[in-house]
Protein backbone atom coordinates (compact mmCIF):
# COMPACT_ATOMS: atom_id res chain seq x y z
CA UNK A 1 0.00 0.00 0.00
CA UNK A 2 1.41 3.44 -0.90
CA UNK A 3 2.50 5.87 1.85
CA UNK A 4 -0.37 7.83 3.38
CA UNK A 5 -0.58 11.51 4.25
CA UNK A 6 -0.84 11.91 8.04
CA UNK A 7 -4.28 12.92 9.31
CA UNK A 8 -2.84 15.94 11.10
CA UNK A 9 -2.81 19.73 10.53
CA UNK A 10 0.02 21.04 8.35
CA UNK A 11 -0.67 23.84 9.57
CA UNK A 12 -1.77 25.92 6.57
CA UNK A 13 -1.81 29.42 8.07
CA UNK A 14 -5.45 29.79 7.02
CA UNK A 15 -8.57 29.26 9.11
CA UNK A 16 -12.35 29.15 9.49
CA UNK A 17 -12.74 32.81 8.43
CA UNK A 18 -10.85 32.32 5.15
CA UNK A 19 -12.99 32.90 2.06
CA UNK A 20 -12.89 30.93 -1.17
CA UNK A 21 -11.16 33.79 -3.00
CA UNK A 22 -8.54 33.99 -0.26
CA UNK A 23 -8.09 30.20 -0.34
CA UNK A 24 -7.31 30.16 -4.06
CA UNK A 25 -4.93 33.09 -3.61
CA UNK A 26 -2.79 33.78 -6.66
CA UNK A 27 -2.97 30.21 -7.99
CA UNK A 28 -3.20 30.30 -11.79
CA UNK A 29 -5.80 27.87 -13.14
CA UNK A 30 -5.77 29.11 -16.72
CA UNK A 31 -6.23 26.16 -19.06
CA UNK A 32 -7.60 23.94 -16.27
CA UNK A 33 -11.04 22.33 -16.38
CA UNK A 34 -13.20 21.61 -13.34
CA UNK A 35 -16.48 19.75 -12.91
CA UNK A 36 -18.57 20.84 -9.91
CA UNK A 37 -21.81 19.11 -8.95
CA UNK A 38 -24.44 21.66 -7.86
CA UNK A 39 -21.95 24.38 -8.71
CA UNK A 40 -24.76 26.87 -9.29
CA UNK A 41 -26.09 27.36 -5.78
CA UNK A 42 -24.88 27.87 -2.20
CA UNK A 43 -21.26 26.96 -1.53
CA UNK A 44 -21.13 25.26 -4.93
CA UNK A 45 -21.67 28.59 -6.67
CA UNK A 46 -19.00 30.26 -4.55
CA UNK A 47 -16.67 27.39 -5.43
CA UNK A 48 -17.38 27.94 -9.13
CA UNK A 49 -16.80 31.69 -8.80
CA UNK A 50 -13.45 31.21 -7.08
CA UNK A 51 -12.24 28.72 -9.69
CA UNK A 52 -13.32 31.00 -12.54
CA UNK A 53 -11.64 33.95 -10.81
CA UNK A 54 -8.39 31.94 -10.90
CA UNK A 55 -8.80 31.28 -14.63
CA UNK A 56 -10.39 27.82 -14.75
CA UNK A 57 -13.23 26.69 -16.99
CA UNK A 58 -16.02 25.06 -15.00
CA UNK A 59 -18.64 22.49 -15.99
CA UNK A 60 -21.56 22.73 -13.57
CA UNK A 61 -23.86 19.73 -13.12
CA UNK A 62 -27.40 20.29 -11.88
CA UNK A 63 -30.75 18.56 -11.94
CA UNK A 64 -32.18 21.66 -13.64
CA UNK A 65 -29.64 22.82 -16.23
CA UNK A 66 -31.70 25.87 -17.22
CA UNK A 67 -31.81 27.07 -13.61
CA UNK A 68 -28.07 26.54 -13.38
CA UNK A 69 -27.45 28.56 -16.54
CA UNK A 70 -29.43 31.46 -15.09
CA UNK A 71 -27.36 31.36 -11.89
CA UNK A 72 -24.14 31.28 -13.92
CA UNK A 73 -25.13 34.16 -16.20
CA UNK A 74 -22.21 36.54 -16.54
CA UNK A 75 -19.60 34.07 -15.30
CA UNK A 76 -17.11 33.40 -18.10
CA UNK A 77 -15.89 29.92 -19.03
CA UNK A 78 -18.85 28.14 -17.42
CA UNK A 79 -21.33 25.67 -18.85
CA UNK A 80 -24.20 23.75 -17.30
CA UNK A 81 -25.36 20.19 -17.96
CA UNK A 82 -28.26 18.20 -16.57
CA UNK A 83 -27.38 15.45 -14.12
CA UNK A 84 -29.33 13.81 -11.32
CA UNK A 85 -27.09 11.93 -8.89
CA UNK A 86 -30.03 9.74 -7.90
CA UNK A 87 -30.50 8.58 -11.52
CA UNK A 88 -27.73 6.28 -12.84
CA UNK A 89 -28.90 6.75 -16.44
CA UNK A 90 -28.59 10.52 -16.06
CA UNK A 91 -25.00 10.12 -14.87
CA UNK A 92 -24.16 7.89 -17.82
CA UNK A 93 -25.73 10.31 -20.31
CA UNK A 94 -23.58 13.21 -19.10
CA UNK A 95 -20.45 11.05 -18.94
CA UNK A 96 -20.97 9.95 -22.55
CA UNK A 97 -21.37 13.56 -23.67
CA UNK A 98 -18.26 14.62 -21.77
CA UNK A 99 -16.18 11.72 -23.08
CA UNK A 100 -17.14 12.62 -26.64
CA UNK A 101 -15.46 16.02 -26.22
CA UNK A 102 -12.08 14.39 -25.56
CA UNK A 103 -11.31 16.87 -22.79
CA UNK A 104 -9.10 16.07 -19.83
CA UNK A 105 -10.35 16.84 -16.33
CA UNK A 106 -8.14 18.58 -13.78
CA UNK A 107 -10.60 19.02 -10.90
CA UNK A 108 -13.70 17.11 -9.85
CA UNK A 109 -15.58 18.60 -6.91
CA UNK A 110 -18.34 16.36 -5.57
CA UNK A 111 -20.30 19.16 -3.91
CA UNK A 112 -23.98 18.22 -4.30
CA UNK A 113 -25.96 16.37 -1.69
CA UNK A 114 -29.15 15.98 0.29
CA UNK A 115 -29.46 16.12 4.06
CA UNK A 116 -31.66 14.53 6.72
CA UNK A 117 -34.52 13.47 4.47
CA UNK A 118 -37.22 10.96 5.48
CA UNK A 119 -36.61 7.31 4.72
CA UNK A 120 -37.02 6.51 1.04
CA UNK A 121 -35.46 3.97 -1.30
CA UNK A 122 -34.70 4.35 -4.97
CA UNK A 123 -35.73 1.87 -7.65
CA UNK A 124 -32.70 -0.27 -6.76
CA UNK A 125 -33.71 -0.44 -3.10
CA UNK A 126 -30.94 1.89 -1.97
CA UNK A 127 -31.48 4.40 0.85
CA UNK A 128 -31.84 7.84 -0.71
CA UNK A 129 -29.06 9.73 1.11
CA UNK A 130 -26.48 6.97 0.63
CA UNK A 131 -27.48 6.61 -3.02
CA UNK A 132 -27.37 10.32 -3.82
CA UNK A 133 -24.50 11.58 -1.70
CA UNK A 134 -22.15 8.65 -2.18
CA UNK A 135 -23.14 6.21 -4.92
CA UNK A 136 -24.04 8.95 -7.42
CA UNK A 137 -20.66 10.62 -6.99
CA UNK A 138 -18.88 7.25 -7.04
CA UNK A 139 -20.46 6.43 -10.40
CA UNK A 140 -19.72 9.91 -11.77
CA UNK A 141 -16.07 9.74 -10.76
CA UNK A 142 -15.77 6.25 -12.20
CA UNK A 143 -17.13 7.37 -15.55
CA UNK A 144 -14.86 10.44 -15.56
CA UNK A 145 -11.80 8.47 -14.47
CA UNK A 146 -10.21 8.32 -17.95
CA UNK A 147 -10.33 12.13 -18.19
CA UNK A 148 -8.91 12.53 -14.67
CA UNK A 149 -6.14 10.05 -15.38
CA UNK A 150 -5.32 11.76 -18.68
CA UNK A 151 -4.82 15.11 -16.92
CA UNK A 152 -1.71 13.73 -15.25
CA UNK A 153 -2.11 15.83 -12.10
CA UNK A 154 -5.76 15.98 -11.08
CA UNK A 155 -7.54 16.42 -7.77
CA UNK A 156 -10.89 15.11 -6.57
CA UNK A 157 -12.61 16.88 -3.67
CA UNK A 158 -15.54 15.12 -1.99
CA UNK A 159 -17.73 17.07 0.41
CA UNK A 160 -18.18 15.16 3.62
CA UNK A 161 -19.28 16.74 6.90
CA UNK A 162 -18.67 16.66 10.62
CA UNK A 163 -21.92 14.65 10.54
CA UNK A 164 -19.64 11.67 9.89
CA UNK A 165 -19.25 11.72 13.70
CA UNK A 166 -22.83 10.42 13.92
CA UNK A 167 -22.32 7.12 12.16
CA UNK A 168 -19.89 4.65 10.70
CA UNK A 169 -21.21 2.57 7.79
CA UNK A 170 -23.40 -0.38 8.67
CA UNK A 171 -22.08 -2.75 6.03
CA UNK A 172 -24.71 -5.35 6.96
CA UNK A 173 -27.65 -2.98 6.41
CA UNK A 174 -26.58 0.31 4.79
CA UNK A 175 -30.04 0.89 3.31
CA UNK A 176 -32.11 0.56 6.48
CA UNK A 177 -34.01 -2.46 5.27
CA UNK A 178 -33.84 -4.25 8.63
CA UNK A 179 -32.99 -1.61 11.24
CA UNK A 180 -34.83 1.44 12.50
CA UNK A 181 -34.22 4.53 10.40
CA UNK A 182 -32.88 7.79 11.80
CA UNK A 183 -32.51 10.51 9.16
CA UNK A 184 -29.56 12.18 10.91
CA UNK A 185 -27.76 8.88 11.38
CA UNK A 186 -28.41 8.05 7.71
CA UNK A 187 -26.99 11.42 6.71
CA UNK A 188 -23.94 10.77 8.87
CA UNK A 189 -23.46 7.35 7.25
CA UNK A 190 -23.53 8.96 3.79
CA UNK A 191 -20.93 11.54 4.88
CA UNK A 192 -18.71 8.78 6.26
CA UNK A 193 -19.04 7.12 2.87
CA UNK A 194 -17.94 10.36 1.16
CA UNK A 195 -14.78 10.50 3.28
CA UNK A 196 -13.98 6.81 2.78
CA UNK A 197 -14.48 7.16 -0.96
CA UNK A 198 -11.89 9.95 -1.07
CA UNK A 199 -9.48 7.80 0.95
CA UNK A 200 -10.02 4.75 -1.25
CA UNK A 201 -9.64 6.73 -4.46
CA UNK A 202 -6.47 8.39 -3.26
CA UNK A 203 -4.87 5.11 -2.25
CA UNK A 204 -5.42 3.66 -5.70
CA UNK A 205 -5.14 6.66 -7.99
CA UNK A 206 -2.08 8.49 -6.68
CA UNK A 207 0.18 6.39 -8.91
CA UNK A 208 -1.50 8.22 -11.83
CA UNK A 209 -1.10 11.68 -10.27
CA UNK A 210 -4.71 11.84 -9.10
CA UNK A 211 -5.17 12.83 -5.45
CA UNK A 212 -8.40 12.97 -3.48
CA UNK A 213 -9.54 14.82 -0.36
CA UNK A 214 -12.70 14.94 1.73
CA UNK A 215 -13.96 18.20 3.18
CA UNK A 216 -16.12 19.51 5.99
CA UNK A 217 -17.21 22.94 4.73
CA UNK A 218 -18.51 24.11 8.12
CA UNK A 219 -21.97 25.10 9.30
CA UNK A 220 -23.55 27.31 6.64
CA UNK A 221 -27.15 28.32 6.06
CA UNK A 222 -27.93 27.12 2.54
CA UNK A 223 -30.78 25.47 0.67
CA UNK A 224 -29.57 22.12 2.03
CA UNK A 225 -31.69 22.68 5.14
CA UNK A 226 -34.81 24.00 3.44
CA UNK A 227 -36.71 20.70 3.38
CA UNK A 228 -36.05 19.80 7.02
CA UNK A 229 -38.99 20.36 9.36
CA UNK A 230 -38.38 22.86 12.18
CA UNK A 231 -39.27 20.19 14.74
CA UNK A 232 -36.54 17.95 13.38
CA UNK A 233 -34.00 20.79 13.52
CA UNK A 234 -35.10 21.46 17.09
CA UNK A 235 -34.72 17.80 18.02
CA UNK A 236 -31.16 17.92 16.70
CA UNK A 237 -30.43 21.05 18.75
CA UNK A 238 -30.09 23.23 15.65
CA UNK A 239 -33.08 25.47 16.44
CA UNK A 240 -34.47 26.87 19.69
CA UNK A 241 -38.06 26.80 20.92
CA UNK A 242 -38.88 29.73 18.62
CA UNK A 243 -37.47 27.99 15.57
CA UNK A 244 -34.38 30.22 15.47
CA UNK A 245 -30.70 29.34 15.59
CA UNK A 246 -29.71 29.36 19.27
CA UNK A 247 -27.81 32.55 20.13
CA UNK A 248 -24.92 30.59 21.59
CA UNK A 249 -24.55 28.75 18.25
CA UNK A 250 -24.58 31.77 15.92
CA UNK A 251 -20.81 32.14 16.10
CA UNK A 252 -20.33 28.65 14.68
CA UNK A 253 -21.92 29.54 11.35
CA UNK A 254 -19.83 30.54 8.36
CA UNK A 255 -20.77 32.73 5.44
CA UNK A 256 -21.24 31.00 2.11
CA UNK A 257 -17.92 32.48 0.94
CA UNK A 258 -16.18 30.95 3.97
CA UNK A 259 -18.03 27.67 3.52
CA UNK A 260 -16.58 27.20 0.03
CA UNK A 261 -13.03 27.92 1.12
CA UNK A 262 -11.91 24.44 2.20
CA UNK A 263 -13.15 22.86 -1.04
CA UNK A 264 -11.22 25.44 -3.05
CA UNK A 265 -8.14 25.06 -0.84
CA UNK A 266 -8.10 21.30 -1.32
CA UNK A 267 -8.59 21.69 -5.06
CA UNK A 268 -5.87 24.27 -5.63
CA UNK A 269 -3.41 24.72 -2.77
CA UNK A 270 0.27 24.13 -3.63
CA UNK A 271 0.82 23.25 0.04
CA UNK A 272 -1.07 19.97 -0.57
CA UNK A 273 1.23 18.89 -3.40
CA UNK A 274 2.02 15.21 -2.99
CA UNK A 275 -0.67 14.75 -0.35
CA UNK A 276 -4.13 13.23 -0.36
CA UNK A 277 -6.61 10.86 1.23
CA UNK A 278 -7.21 13.11 4.23
CA UNK A 279 -10.27 14.82 5.74
CA UNK A 280 -9.95 18.61 5.86
CA UNK A 281 -11.73 21.44 7.64
CA UNK A 282 -11.14 25.19 7.99
CA UNK A 283 -8.57 25.16 5.17
CA UNK A 284 -6.29 22.64 6.83
CA UNK A 285 -6.00 18.91 7.36
CA UNK A 286 -8.15 18.03 10.36
CA UNK A 287 -6.75 16.41 13.47
CA UNK A 288 -7.33 12.70 13.99
CA UNK A 289 -9.68 11.84 16.87
CA UNK A 290 -10.35 8.71 18.84
CA UNK A 291 -13.88 7.34 18.90
CA UNK A 292 -14.26 8.48 22.52
CA UNK A 293 -13.09 12.11 22.27
CA UNK A 294 -15.79 14.74 22.81
CA UNK A 295 -15.19 17.19 20.01
CA UNK A 296 -17.24 18.57 17.13
CA UNK A 297 -14.05 18.94 15.09
CA UNK A 298 -11.61 16.44 13.66
CA UNK A 299 -11.69 13.08 11.88
CA UNK A 300 -13.19 10.05 13.58
CA UNK A 301 -11.15 6.83 13.18
CA UNK A 302 -13.67 5.11 10.92
CA UNK A 303 -13.05 7.61 8.08
CA UNK A 304 -9.28 7.07 8.28
CA UNK A 305 -9.37 3.29 7.91
CA UNK A 306 -8.11 2.00 4.54
CA UNK A 307 -9.66 -1.42 5.16
CA UNK A 308 -13.09 0.18 5.52
CA UNK A 309 -12.38 2.33 2.47
CA UNK A 310 -11.66 -0.65 0.26
CA UNK A 311 -14.62 -2.59 1.65
CA UNK A 312 -16.85 0.35 0.69
CA UNK A 313 -15.16 0.48 -2.72
CA UNK A 314 -16.07 -3.14 -3.46
CA UNK A 315 -19.59 -2.65 -2.14
CA UNK A 316 -20.06 0.47 -4.28
CA UNK A 317 -18.91 -1.29 -7.42
CA UNK A 318 -21.36 -4.10 -6.73
CA UNK A 319 -24.23 -1.71 -6.04
CA UNK A 320 -23.68 0.52 -9.07
CA UNK A 321 -22.48 -2.15 -11.48
CA UNK A 322 -19.71 0.27 -12.43
CA UNK A 323 -16.16 -0.99 -12.46
CA UNK A 324 -13.91 1.79 -11.18
CA UNK A 325 -10.42 0.48 -11.84
CA UNK A 326 -8.55 3.47 -10.47
CA UNK A 327 -5.39 1.42 -10.21
CA UNK A 328 -5.43 0.58 -13.89
Overall description:
This protein is an alpha/beta fold and 328 residues long. The chain has a single domain (20-224, 255-320), classed as 3-Layer(aba) Sandwich (Rossmann fold). Helix content is 36%, strand content 13%. It has helices at 20-24, 42-53, 65-71, 88-101, 128-151, 183-205, 230-235, 256-259, 261-268, 306-320, and strands at 33-37, 57-62, 78-82, 107-110, 154-159, 210-216, 219-220, 253-254, 279-281, 284-285. β1 (33-37), α2 (42-53) and β2 form a beta-alpha-beta unit. α4 runs parallel beside α5 (128-151), α5 runs parallel beside α6 (183-205) and α6 packs across α10 (306-320). The chain is globular and about 50 Å long.
Amino acid sequence: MPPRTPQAPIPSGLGRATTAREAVGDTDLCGKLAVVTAGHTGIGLETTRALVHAGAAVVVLARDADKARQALDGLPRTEAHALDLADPDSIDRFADVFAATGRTLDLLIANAGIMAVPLAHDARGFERQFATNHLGHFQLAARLWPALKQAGQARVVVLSSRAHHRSDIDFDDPHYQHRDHDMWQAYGQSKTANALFALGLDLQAQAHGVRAFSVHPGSILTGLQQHIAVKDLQAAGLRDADGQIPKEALGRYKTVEQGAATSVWCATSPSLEGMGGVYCEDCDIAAALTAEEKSSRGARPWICDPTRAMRLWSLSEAMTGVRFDAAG
